[in-house]
Amino acid sequence: MNVPTIPALSHTRTLGAFLARYGIWAFFVLLVAIPAATNPDFRSVANLQGFLTSAGVLVTLTMGEAFVLLVAGVDLSVGAAAALGSVVVTLALMHPLPLVLALVLTLVVTAACGIASGLAVAYLGLPSFIVTFGMLGLQGGAALVISGGNRISMPTTSSLPTLASGVVLGVPYQIWLTLILLVLGSAFLRYVRAGRHLYAVGSNLNAARLSGVPVRRILVLAFALSGLFAGIGGIIYAARIVSGDPLGQPNLNLQAIAAAVIGGVSLFGGRGTLVGAFLGALVYALITNVLDLYGVNPNITELVSGLIIIAAAYTNVASVRAKG
Amino acid sequence: MTPMNVQQDRADTTVTVPEATPAEMAPHDVPQRSRPSYRAVLARYRIWGILLLLMLLATLASGGVFIRPSNLINILFIAAPISIAALGETMVILTAGIDVSVASVWILAAMVGGTLVTAGTPLPLAVAAALGAGLLCGAVNGVLVAVVKLPPLIATLAMLAMAEGAARIYTNNQPVLSMPDAYTALGSAYVGPIPLPVLIWAAVLLALQFVMTRTVLGKEIYAVGGNRETALYSGLRVGRTLFVVYAVAGLLASLGGVLQSAYLNTAVPNGDLNTLFDVIAGAVVGGTSLFGGEGRLLNTMGGVLVIVVIQNLLNILGVSPLVEQAVLGAVIVSAVYLNVGLGGARSGQRVFHKGV
């Protein structure tokens, strides 16, 4: 070759793209294989089931977050939406509404919050960061007000907790649920026109607009999906703790973003998959689980997760740069 | 006119000036900065009008309780630490960045300072260690944003987790409950009639105001946020500017943490998002544009006071603290809407804030 830079460049390009696409798989496999080989406690069915049960909420929220990240937005309110969802479903069951109605009501409430965020972003031109920041306050406040500020217990007769405790083929119901969401969501992104449009809007908003993509509606759709998934996450959360918790887990808002980035979803929009988000959330949860099993001071977990966020974001950014 | 001058002009007239459309300007004075009309000045300091109205409303609604000197002083004590951290956040947002780690750094500093001083370390040393921890966190943020070039949201998100983890490891997850008087004095003493934290707040504000309006660094901060590429091509030290801004934000967050823990006489390692909420809300309600390049330190002070006054009023009225969060959420969104809507040449052009 006369020009040596070209193969070098294309090599970088391939490596960056390769890392972005498959790095998360390698990471996931290592995080499972190493403890599985060295620690019998990790291999135990009880631990794996416990781990999966604890990961369901984060996995669901991260997939929802991915829709918003794909359109180059950010949703800071998914954790608060999940907390609100857990309170709404518990109150509805206490009322008592039939289970199906309670579930539908919850999803309508959280999806409506998502739509409200989306409308403010798409039609008022406000930055998604600040809209969802305000929505975080609104949803958190609403959850506190309607629950009276305390955790509320679910009626003992309710069958919802089996969502968390029930197991089919050794896998908890809630994980089956997240897998179904993963398949449906991925199919939506791949085969449905609106799903493809999410990528188009995130990659280049103006180009998408000029190509006739209904940009504003697609933006609202992304936030609506995020709200919907957060509602499902809230239902899983309520099922797991058998109550509605207005405070939720405060860090969940940001963990969902971090997990999505670990899974290779770009913060700049237009890049990423739900499978990546799913794995990213599992990796995030696995880190806690594995460090815990090895008897590491649980306070160190956060420190480590911070380092992993940086590493993942670096891979993410490097691959974008490699592609130019 | 060199590009550099364009940048400086741009930096000087950063606030929304809807009146100064080219059509209204004299035909030949385009390169000169036109004197802002009095309506433009009003728009620029709108937040202070809102604050005054709000205080009037609060006085009426609380039957005079709000305006009592003891209550006003109380508001200042609460506002001082938040304002100091919000000054750093404003500088970061002016560069089109964001720092979500302020609350964690704030907590880390409080834990370091509180633990050391309770264990008998001399006061200046303990405070220096706390501020040093904050400066270090900020510097790491700065390296991640300026050198590694991570998106600010993600870099500071990682710092949020790490600083909180560090605070817990350092204290083994135990709160610091009763601190020596010399330390608590930092947050609760008076110098003459003026609370000490308010004096510190004023000193920080004056120093930063000088930096922002009278130094090259200040112009660079506006330029980097106004148009990153132009700043780069104009030879501005973009990386250095970003690094300094994040480092200063970390330092100021830790100062806020020290003052607040001294005022409350407690430091708890578990963070909540409330501090972060108040700090970012203060900057944004004060009119700082999340797109960068637009905003004023003084107006952030107005924004923080608006937030604190609303909280105070809801308290006095006996409104459940549960409602408070919802009210503040609504206030933030509407404040941003007003800022974008009234001054918003940019709304609609950039629906999204890429990278934040």
Short description:
The complex is a heterodimer of chains A (324) and B (356). Chain A has 324 residues and is mainly alpha-helical. Chain A has helices at residues 5-38, 40-43, 45-70, 78-94, 99-124, 128-147, 162-165, 173-191, 193-203, 205-210, 215-241, 252-262, 274-293, 298-323, and strands at 152-153, 167-168, 171-172, 243-244.
Envelope shape of chain A: globular
How confident is the prediction overall: mean pLDDT of chain A?
82
Helix run count of chain B: 15
Mass-distribution shape of chain B: globular
Let me know the number of strands of chain B: 2
Strand content of chain B: under 5%
Rg over C-alpha atoms of chain B, rounded to the nearest angstrom: 21 Å
Along the chain, the helix and strand elements of chain B come as HHHHHHHHEEHHHHHHH
Distance linking N and C termini of chain A:
23 Å
Number-wise, the strands of chain A total 4
Largest interface: A-B, 57 and 59 residues
Uncertain segments of chain B: 1-32, 342-356
How would you explain this protein's 3D organization?
The complex is a heterodimer of chains A (324) and B (356). Chain A is mainly alpha-helical and 324 residues long. Helix content of chain A is 77%, strand content 2%. Chain A is built from 14 helices and four strands. Chain A has helices at 5-38, 40-43, 45-70, 78-94, 99-124, 128-147, 162-165, 173-191, 193-203, 205-210, 215-241, 252-262, 274-293, 298-323; strands spanning 152-153, 167-168, 171-172, 243-244. In chain A, the strands form two sheets. Chain A has a two-stranded antiparallel ribbon with strand order 1-4. In chain A, helix 12 (252-262) packs across helix 13 (274-293). Chain B has 356 residues and is mainly alpha-helical. Chain B has helices spanning 3-12, 38-44, 46-61, 69-94, 102-118, 123-146, 152-171, 181-188, 196-214, 216-226, 228-233, 238-264, 274-285, 297-316, 321-343, and strands spanning 190-191, 194-195. Chain B has a two-stranded antiparallel ribbon with strand order 1-2. In chain B, strand 1 and strand 2 (194-195) form a beta hairpin. Chain B starts with a helix and ends in a 13-residue tail after the last helix.
